[in-house]
Amino acid sequence: MGKAAVGVKTAWWWVVGVMQSLVGALIVLALTPVVAPILLLLWLWRNVALLVVWAQYGRVARVASGMEALFALDSSGARAVISGAAVLRGRVSVDAVRKILGERIMDARDARGRLLHPKFRQLVERRCGVVVWMWEENFAVESHVHQLRSGLQPCLLQDEEDLVTAMGKRANRPFVRGQARWEVLVAPLRTCGAARGGDEWSHTAVIVRLHHALGDGRSMVGLIVTALVDPPLGDPRPSPVIQKPFGGRLARSARFLWSLTHLPWVAVRVLVRGDSSVLHGRRLQGEKFLAWSPPVPLDALKRARALAGVSVNDILLTGLAAALHKHFRMEGDSVPSQVMTVIPVDVTAPGTPLSLANRISLCTVPLPTGEMSSLERLEQIHRRINILKMSPDVMANYFALDLISNLLPAALARRALNTHGVTMVSSNMPGPKEAIKLFGQPVDDLMFWIPNKSRTGLGVSMLSYCGRVRCGLNVDSALIHTAEFAQELMDNMASEVEHVLAELASPAGGAGDHCQVLVEESDHSVITDHGLNYSTDEYSDRSGVKTYSDLRDSSDTRQFLDLEETVVGLEETESAESHHLLEDFQNERLEIQTIVRSESNLSRHVGEMEARFALSDTNLKGVTYSQER
Fold first, then answer.
1. What is the pTM of this model?
2. What's the pLDDT score for residue 93?
3. Distance between start and end Cα atoms, the chain
4. Which of helix, strand or coil describes residue 237?
């Protein structure tokens, strides 16, 4: 494509984007005279209801925020409870767990004597149609930390399979009425991983159940690694998906107004979307099956990321989409071309202190589940995630969810926030890069499971820890009928991820023209990023434009990959000479990067604009932007 043609196409897509915003702004302005009085009445009603609540109940601590209220509006068939498990190498008593939790979290106070984490002493309740936090009467850590029991007898777990089965039985169990909605359960574990055989109970399983209103997964992990880990680690949260605001308050205000213009399109998309498959639409039963995948080496994922220019998250979602395709075929049902998944997006402002909160927006992304090659599937997912990064939908969704949860009465808000037309929720979490200690013992394994929501009974979680990635499944029995089938889906996901890695690593792997090599346009090398970033969510990728087949056999790319291997070896040494050579190699690598991307920025930009329009608001049903077979 000539430069003139590229320029014309670029101008055309900018015109389309501006027209979308203008039409959205006109719709918002036209509806304002109608919507504003309604919002004012709802605000007045809310304040009257709060006055009644404060007068009637003396234990009210504060009003729940919009996202806290959103998760508090759960149901008996899908409780908004995050489950987690840590496998400790050694024996840990219940009393030791109670003592450490009490000292470091429940009773921890700041310099002014205020509780650092008051939510753990509070319960979230719906009163008079509003959601409030109330103090738990006679709070005691002993009421929330117990020995795992089966009936009246202590539960002794044989292995990881036994652990996951026990967690599945408790996944949808309600908390004790009148108590804060969290619990920690401790159980001896006979064996873990390769350590099979013997009569010694060599491990301890610590099971955690936390209501989502307490905080999102990132803030939970942040609390664990900063308060419970010995020694404490830094904040593990990666950069948010959305672009960081630039230019200060004026730029943030402009972005907010831009997001408002897309609210009409977001509302229309919610109304018209509708997945149809064996994994969607059935009434949830409340019985949950939990499963987790075999571990996948994080180093292999990162090498594939560097080779193909995609994120680790893209590769994991590709494996998930392929596993879902296989599941649909085994069920004998018609295979849908795509399924919609909700992806939590961190909207935490840069520099915000770590605290328990729900600073996430919920955005939808279609996963391609039709018949196609692994690399075609990877390319489609990569492009769709890139569209999400730049989309105003992130803040528009956050604003809409917060407004609905805050102003509507609880019964109406639950109906308005029904997960219509969505098959699943998928969440990728950063975990510690190196092995950690909890309650005085090394952690051999770490995993979490996200809850089901409303009518969406399938949730997939991904967590990196100590050089490996595990994926967890929480599924309602109405959708997958046995624990064996649930585990089979996770095993298939891991095998599909390994298949993608093998294809990318193969010299004749067939990546061909279906997968682009994306060179990061930053001053930091991929090797440096590997060393510093242990999150599986790389949201700072930049698009290059030459195809894999163009670069695979070029001297620049061979030199690029050789340099990566050399740098890895140098980083593992400590000598001054090695550091000097490392600096030289990194400088040479940056020069090669410049050569690779020098002539392609304009074409890349046009490709992104085309993809964005294909998923844009003016083409609501056109969700596929690349050629699908």
1. 0.77
2. 93
3. 25
4. coil
